[in-house]
Design a protein that fits this description.
The complex is a heterodimer. Chain A is α+β, with helices and mostly antiparallel strands. In chain A, 16% of the residues lie in helices and 33% in strands. Chain A has seven helices and 28 strands. In chain A, helix 3 crosses helix 5. The longest helix of chain A is centred in the C-terminal third of the chain and has 16 residues. Chain A is globular and about 70 Å long. The N and C termini of chain A lie far apart (59 Å). Chain B folds into two domains: 73 residues, Alpha-Beta Plaits; 53 residues, Alpha-Beta Plaits (2-Layer Sandwich), CATH 3.30.70. By secondary structure, chain B is an alpha+beta fold. In chain B, 20% of the residues lie in helices and 34% in strands. In chain B, the strands form three sheets. In chain B, strands 2-3-1-4 form a four-stranded antiparallel sheet, with helices on one face. In chain B, strands 5-8 form a two-stranded antiparallel sheet. Classes of the chains: A alpha+beta, B alpha+beta. At the A-B interface, strand 3, strand 15, strand 21, strand 27 and helix 7 of A face helix 3 of B.
Amino acid sequence: MKTVAEINEKIKLGKAVVVTAEEIIGIAEEKGYEEAAEMIDVVTTGTFGPMCSSGVFINFGHTSPPIKMQTVTLNDVPAYAGLAAVDAYIGATELSQSKGMEYGGGHVIEALVAGEDVTLKATAHGTDCYPRKNVETTINKNNVNQIYMYNPRNAYQNYPAATNSTDKTIYTYMGTLLPKFNNITYSTAGELSPLLNDPYYRTIGLGTKIFLGGAQGYVTWQGTQHNPEQKRGENGVPQSLAGTLAVTGDLKDMSDRYVKGAVYEKYGISLFVGIGIPIPILDAEMLKHTAVKNSEIVTALADKSGKEKLPETYTYEQLQSGSVEFRGKQVKTAPLSSISRAREIAEELKSWIEKGEFLLTEAVAPLPLKNKINKLDIREIK
Amino acid sequence: MKKARVKLYFPREWTGKPLMSEVILKYGIVFNILHADITYNNAGTIIAEFSGDDNAVNGALDYIDSVGVKYKIYNKSIIRLEDKCIDCGACTAVCPSDALTMDENNKLVFDKEKCLVCELCIKACPLGIISTEF
């Protein structure tokens, strides 16, 4: 048994033993959970996938005379300005007013992370206290006041693989799906993924310090659609959509290596977000959770045309092999989330901890283990 | 010697006839099918590589065209900006010839020899870093 405080003392002394969520698998197989839990202090996880529910709050600073911004665009992509005078929020999936589905919020966010100048246009109706009606200028991450990422739903614990039952190609946020079940796409970091390594949220909770887009960030809340009551396997790992995280971090410290705008043909814009979460190895049980491997992680299969309910499930080892058997034939499988960069993030976080630059935190409150997901009822408006 | 990657557009009425056998015998070319999407009595396409003497390949293509089978020569090639690639793998979902695959380290591998230049990967790439020209 170890505490987070004890592990932090070892980190400060440069004596903590840190491995990635891939490396721990072999160690656990060789040493067993008990002995491995004695040896290892921290397991680092990582994920780098498209996460639509992401965005950035910005305070631009006041103009003279001042303006209460009512409409705001950044590089011609609308941002939400129904906040105080010069606060706005730009969401990843917002589309450009002039370029449509070629450019959007995700690209603006990537440009801001890269330190590029972005064109700000704002309009207002003008008030006694905020007389100005127009602003046109350029901003970047260094000349605004605050600029922080706040992502309402990231790091989905698990996600169904996608296919298409119809006889036409469909274009989705899960990529291009060929007719008649001719391909399957999936999006996961699998055995590297943060919440798959802590399936019951024992160490990851509110206030947990994380790697976010190359900077240090925090888990701030349960993510939207947090669904901890999903069906789980014997190892505790959910077998479809389950837990999610809301996360935040200072965009000024982020790197565009780990934040990338993305276009999905005929769907629109998303944002690749890099997240890494350290898991303190408190005991053998925690070690066992982090030793989970792709062959033990199962996910459902969804027909993205919405026509059929599919009973098939696959492990991530099967999906990563490049093809799986579906109704008697081999179907090609393709990833959407970068596992090689997820691995890089887990390695980067490991090096921060080894160098003593990153201490672990204890959650200030746990993520809920009970929460049901509602459907939106279409009700008559009275 | 000439090698040409060609997409042949067969109208419905040509699907039951041994046109390519005739062309191979008449012009002595090597005809290698890379991808076919064609069934009897339905218009369809074949992507193939023609090789042989310059005159033979040109003659074969002219002949095919003269009988009403249109063709397009692929003289472009697919270019991926490797340093910008994040190895997500979205392009591998649509590649019909396994020219784009993931290796055992989850890195994207592009095998130019297998590429049909069908250009499906260009639109499937979420970062817009695959093109026939930059």
